[in-house]
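Dear support,

I submitted the protein below through the web form. The confirmation email said the job was done, but the results page showed an empty box. After a refresh the structure appeared. I'm attaching both so you can tell me whether what I see now is the final result or a partial one.
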Amino acid sequence: MNREIKFRVWDKSKKEFQEVERYKNEFISIALGFYSEICVSPDDLVLQQFTNFKDKKGNEIFEGDYVRAKTNFSRGGNIPSYLEVEGVVEYHLESAQFLLRYENKEFNVKNATIALNGLYESEIVGNNFDNLK
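What the results page shows now:
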């Protein structure tokens, strides 16, 4: 499987996302236009990696995105169903994968995680720079 390595950055001063041209030796090159870029210190930016997953609308999911999705869930009695979850995408170093950290009020679930490949009908509903929570 070929995995696309891609980043976006949140510019703290401009309060917007910027496209990353290169990331090398702790400096980030941001595209400014055709054949033009600027090298910026990471202190001014928050780097976020593409998860290699897309939501149901085809939008790329990055770490830091808030996602609403469904996951398979059995309510007992061999009746398959699903659980609606909403949370933030995080990289989990110990398992080397992107996870959704979520809560579910119906079942009083707090601070649970699930791998992104265990989700379906995913939809990006914001990111950790929005005032959602």
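Response: this is the final, complete result; the empty box was a page-load delay. The radius of gyration is 17 Å.
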